Every structure is written in structure tokens, then in C-alpha cells.
Predict the 3D structure of the following.
Amino acid sequence: MGIESDFIWFDGALVPYAEAKVHVLTHTLHYGVGVFEGIRAYEQDDGRAGIWRLREHLDRFLLSARMCRMPTPAWGVDALTEACLDVLDANGFTSAYLRPLAFLGAGAMGLGARTNPIQVVIAAWRWGAYMGEEGLARGVRLKTSSLVRSHPNAALQSAKVVGHYVNNILARYEANDAGFDEALMLDHHGFVAEGTGENIFLVDARGRVVTPPLANVLPGITRRTVIELLEHDGVEVVEQFFGRDALYGAREVFMVGTAAEVTPIRDVDGIAIDAPGPITQRVQSVYLDAVRGRVPWLRPYVTTRS
Ligand SMILES: Cc1ncc(COP(=O)(O)O)c(C=O)c1O
């Protein structure tokens, strides 16, 4: 997929797309210590760009950096908020995907290097439905991966670290090569964890919504929103471990994430699941309204420039 974008924010300045370059000895390119976020802006009904849950994403970004011992003193939440709004303005985007990334620049090499500059970029581009419009409407096919999600002592589960995504990308390739849309990652105990870029929910036979607890998954911002939406509707949400068999027998399965939004699952490992089910449809439609500022009790979560 080609990226169409005119300007990228790079260490405090808006740089033309073609000039936003790094050296081949950029430390993160070799070893993967860097942190990133994925954020979406949606055009609001008044025509302005609204960034969905920007504060939560920037908090997670800075926390990920702190956990990786990458101090980013120059850039706090306020400065990064302005930077995100600047990137959208500079590109003339009212709807876009935003990608903040903090990485260790060129300088020293070797695993123990600590003197490399910490650089921050924020890119933006137009990005439609992550799993395609048809996937969003009719559901996608999921395959349990042979690759296990990293053990909690092998990765920082709650941080979005560049290098962690090798595990996810290999799982995604494997699923795609087998003809499926997305991979289901199990944890080291064999419990369901998440997709390669989404958290997972099922609706059980009692009509409860079940999702894995924050132990073996990324604490998704969409996950939290979806729990709020469901609880607002009076639906019981349970956070507990379960095996893949719970998915095979579920009434509904859906995945959520900034990129994937709320995507129904219509097949797990070749076992068909009705999709989209009523709860999935309700969550999807409230979510897609909320991000456009149309759900009054969630409106404060959209950041706009007045
Ligand atoms: C591994 C993984 N799980 C879940 C998610 C969903 O998180 P969020 O809803 O914050 O985008 C993402 C996306 O960031 C992810 O990369």
C-alpha cells in the first residue's frame, strides 16, 4: 500500500514527505527498540478533524517509551497533541491514521548503546477499513497461529514496542498464506490472547460478552471503549481466560482495535460463526458514531482544533 502524505512531523518540524529520512545505522532499524502508536482521526459532523482518544494514545506512547527506558523529555502530551493536530492541518486531512513513533537514531551501535538520540516522528495518511469494507460488514476469517504470543517475561505486554511486532507479523503472514484474514494468537498457557493488532471478544451462550484479561494482551484503547459501550447498554462483560474452543462455540466473535475498529469474525479455524451478530452490530454502529462525535456521553474523547 502506498502512503499518500505531504508532510511528516519530525522532531518538532513539519518536513516534506520525501525529506523525512533516517540513516541506515539508525539503531531501532537493527534491534527494534522503539515505540509507536496507531491513532485515528475522523471527520466530525461540523467538518473538522476529530482525533479519537488522543490523550489515551499519547499516554500509552509515553508510557511505552518510559518502559523501554527511552526518555522523551522534549515531548510531553501537550506538545504531541499540537503536533498531531499540526500534521493533520499540514496535510489537509480531516480523516486519517496517525502514526507516532519514537526511535533510537544513528550514532553508536551495539546492544548496550545508550547515547543515540531519541527521535520522534508523527506521520498521517488516509487509511480506510483495515480488513476491507467487506470484512467490516460481513466479517473476517481467523486462524489460530502456531506462533505463541510472547511470554510476559519476554516482552512488555502493555507497551507498543517496535520489536514485539515481529511475532505478530510472522503470525499474520502464516494466517494469510493459509488463506485466512487474520491470526489468533494464544498465550504461553494456550489461552486466547488477541489478534496481531486487535483485542478479541466473544458472546457466550448466556449472552455475556467475554474478553481475555489484561495479562496476556495489549491494553487496547478500543477494548476499553467497547467495554464502556457494552456496560452502558447493560450488557454483562467478563474479563477471563478461555481456550480456543470457547470461540468455536461462541454465539458471536468480534475483534477491536484502532485500525480494525469493530470487525466481526465469521470463521475461526474453519468453524463458521454467524456474523455479524446483533451485539457485534450494535457495538460497531455505536463505536462508528462515537468516533464521529455523535454519542454525547463519549464526545469528550474527540480532540479537535477550534
Ligand atoms: C497487539 C495489539 N493488540 C491490540 C491492539 C488494539 O489496541 P488499540 O485499541 O489501542 O488500537 C493493537 C493496536 O494497537 C495491537 O497492536
About this structure: The chain has eight helices and 17 strands. Residues 38, 160, 168, 194, 197-199, 218, 220-223, 257-258 surround pyridoxal-5'-phosphate (CB under 6 Å). The first strand starts at residue 7 and ends at 10. The chain has two domains: 7-125, 132-290.
